[in-house]
Each structure stands twice: as C-alpha cells, then as structure tokens.
Amino acid sequence: MPMSGVKVLDLSRVLAGPWAGQILADLGAEVIKVERPLSGDDTRHWGPPYLANDAGQETEQSAYYLCANRGKQSVCIDMTTPEGQAQIRQLAADSDVLIENFKVGGAAKYGLDYQSLAKINPRLVYCSITGFGQTGPYADRPGYDFLVQAMGGLMSVTGEPDASGEQVGGGPQKAGVALTDIMTGLYATIGIQAALSERLHSGQGQQVDLALLDVTVATLANQASNYLVGGQIPQRLGNAHPNIVPYQSFVVADGHCIVAVGNDQQFARFVDVLGLPELAEEECYRSNVQRVLNRDRLIPKLQRAMLERPRDEWLALFEQVQVPAGPINNIDEVFENPQIKAREMVVEMEHPESSALKLVANPIKFSRTPIRYSRPPPRLGEHSDTVLSALSSINKTQS
C-alpha cells in the first residue's frame, strides 16, 4: 500500500488528529493510538448511538468514535507518570510520525514536545494540531470546531440572508458536520506527507504546525478572495452562490431541488426547459456578470416557473439537456444512491463485537494499490499487551 512501512504514533483525540491518523492508516501506515487508561478518547463516550453487537445489545463503541479510528491499534498509557512518558518516548524513537493535539506547551510538561523527542529521533515528523497554532496572541487559547467556524468567518457566509435588518432563517449557521476539524485533518495529512517526502532528501524530520483557525481562513477560498481582491465583505446568501447565478436551491411542486448553472450556455438550456427562452436573450440576463448584478429580478421569475412541476420531473428534463441539477438527499437516500453503491463508499468490517460494522469508505481510489480495510476501530486498550510487551522485550535485549 502507498504508505506501508511508515509508523505513526497518534497521541491525538476527538476528530482533527484522529481523522489524519485514520487517513494514514487507510493508506497503509502502521498507526498506534495512545489513549488514557479507563476513559480513552473523549469521543468513545459521545453517544448515542452506540454500536450494537450481534445479540442486539449496545456496546461501548460510539458511532462518533468509530468514524475516525479505523485501522489503528489502541494502547493505554498514562502519560502523567514517568513510566508512561518513558513508554511514549520509546514508541516515538521508533516512529516516523507523531500526531498530537495538546494545548500549546502541554506536551512539554511530560517531555513529549517536538524539541525533546527530536533529540532521540531526529527523523521524526511531529504534527501539532491546536485551535490557534504554536505562535500568536491566541496560541494559549483552547480551540473547538464550532468556535473557530465562527471566528474564522465561515458562519458569516453560511445561513439565510438578513431581510430589512431582521434575521430570517436562523441567522449565521455552522456547517452540519465539524468541517473545520475534518479539513484540518486533511491539511495535517498533506503536511505530514510533504515532510516525509522532504525527509528523503534531508534525512531530517520537522514539526508541522496546524491551527483550526488558519485552516478555516484558508478554506474560505473564493469568499476570502472576493474580499481580498474585490474589497467586498461576503454576506450570507442561503443556498445561493456569490459569484454564479442561478446556482442555488429552488422550491418545486413537491419539495426542493438544486440547480447549478455554471455558464451561459447552460443558462440558455435551463430557461428553455422552464419555458422562458427569452430570458437568455435579454441583456440583463445574457451573461453571468449581468445575472449576478440582477439576481433579485431574475430569481423570482425562475422560482415561479419551478413551482409548476415536481422535483423528479424537473430533474429528468434537466438531465436530458445537460443542465446540472440534483435532489437534496437525506443521509439514508445518500447511501441508497446507485452512484454511491457503485463507488463502494460503504465498507463492511468484522468487529470483535459485531460481525457487520458498516463505515464510510475512504474516497481515494488507486489503480494499482487499492486501500484494504483489515483493522476495525479498536476497543480501548485492545493492543496494549502486544505493543507494550514488545517494548519490554526491546528493553531486556538492550540491557
């Protein structure tokens, strides 16, 4: 597999760090997850729901924990003790990568910071994930996904717009998943892989510093650029797009659907299906620039037409003329979608407490080295004896 032979020591918990560790495990790395004795990763207790065993009884494996810890070994170590610290140092000495999400300075209290571990393993790639990074005036603050979605501007562009100075639609909204944590896990994975690649030339490891706030700002993408380049402060537009029109949801006869018109040719085909072909010839709607400037006049006309047919009828008509459109699926509809099934986006694994654990698959598809799912998310301390006895054997051999 692509990362076979890479050893990862995962000291992180909750989501951003564990997400990075799971990706590396999916790619073939050996990942050892260090957890607190008795309680383990916080997310083990973030339920319900919890996994049911083959007898239908609820286990201690929360759905939240299961989503981010596939492919790892779980080892319980009390790092507040000298013995635990020594064990982690031994594991780090034999690792290529370490992932941690302590508060700034937290790892140093135990002698497990980058500077300390680099002395015993100069090749170590040490990835630190915090709310605000290792530097700056906010470095000592704790950071959480929800908080940082707000501080980083993401919530200011998510949700329904204000009307006449009054809030409608609930005002600013966070994303429906912990998107900042997920994106930070992805950036952490990229940073780790880049540092491993650089190590091939230098022979040296380094610290990779990831901040939830930095990642949130980076992923504002076109909205950030709208401000930096155009001087425009982006506002909430609900399901509409700031730079493309029409690119939004519409109410139809039996619910809602999405239309994503990306160019002028698609717009002409779209309004032709609606029975409004003349709109594509009007100067104020002919180009996307004009449609953005005149969206308040255009959208009501399109919306009135969209109410005339049910969703599936519209979608069939749009597909015939290659106008991008789709339904707003519930999660159950997502996993019943034939495309999702064809892409094998659900993986079924045998868990010690359930013979048919279902998880979302990794979306990366390799032509030669496909991802293999051989290790389910571990039970707390499931591999402690194996891993720690191996350390004891090394100590005896060295002595």
UniProtKB/TrEMBL annotation:
Gene Ontology molecular function, alphabetical: CoA-transferase activity
Pfam entry (one): CoA_transf_3
Tagged with keyword Cytoplasm: no
Parts forming coiled coils: none
InterPro entries membership: CoA-transferase_III_domain (IPR050483), CoA-Trfase_fam_III (IPR003673), CoA-Trfase_III_dom3_sf (IPR044855), CoA-Trfase_III_dom_1_sf (IPR023606)
Name listed for the protein in its UniProt record: Crotonobetainyl-CoA:carnitine CoA-transferase CaiB-like acyl-CoA transferase
Source species: Sinobacterium caligoides
Keyword Transferase included in the entry's annotation: yes
Keywords attached to this entry: Transferase
